[in-house]
Amino acid sequence: MAASPIAVLDVDGTLVDSNYQHALAWYRAFRSLGETFPIWRIHRLIGMGGDQLVAAIGGDELEERIGEQARERWVEEADPLMGEVAVLPGARDLLLALKERGHRVVLASSGKPHHVDLSLDLLDARDLADAWTTSDDVEETKPAPDLLQVALQKLGAPADAASVLVGDSVWDVKAADNAGMPAVVVRSGGFGDDELNDAGAVAIFDTPGDLAANLSDTPLA
Prior knowledge:
Elements: E1 6-9, H1 19-32, H2 39-43, H3 50-81, H4 91-100, E2 105-107, H5 113-123, E3 131-132, H6 146-154, E4 163-167, H7 170-179, E5 183-186, H8 193-199, E6 203-205, H9 208-213
Parallel strand pairs: 1-2, 1-4, 2-3, 4-5, 5-6
């Protein structure tokens, strides 16, 4: 009997409702450095790592000029907002359902270690997840595949191990495609179904709880 595929789960926006806090933190960070971008444009990039976001919104010149400062300011702005983050509906149920089905579960986050710690506590997931990642584990984040490859390495699994990504953004789906994984997506990232489908999502659900109730209809069956 074939082993159950590894479940590689994004955290921010997928299991915890933090995307808008991160968007606001980036907005304030840029503003503090004399650069103002519409928050909706920033939100469209959430899910992409901070190492890529500055150039994505303002070009290489902006990255060279204020990239490191912006990332430092973002942490300063994000930290006070983390107390407002809540678990998305059914997120812990999804973790439990995956474990009950025999999946190994790794939480693939590019968040700062102390933000990942907060999410683990909110989800009470330390005894459920087999491993997790943080921004300290990779040099290049999504949509590059590095984070997902490191997630498998954390389990001692080969790069071609049967695995499925659960995410919330087009950046998750693109990273999964780059890593050779199918991607199942929840809508909490704020992207339209057409965008997620065009990026390559194989299934879309409203909430983690909806996914937990319908695992048999996904590659995690």
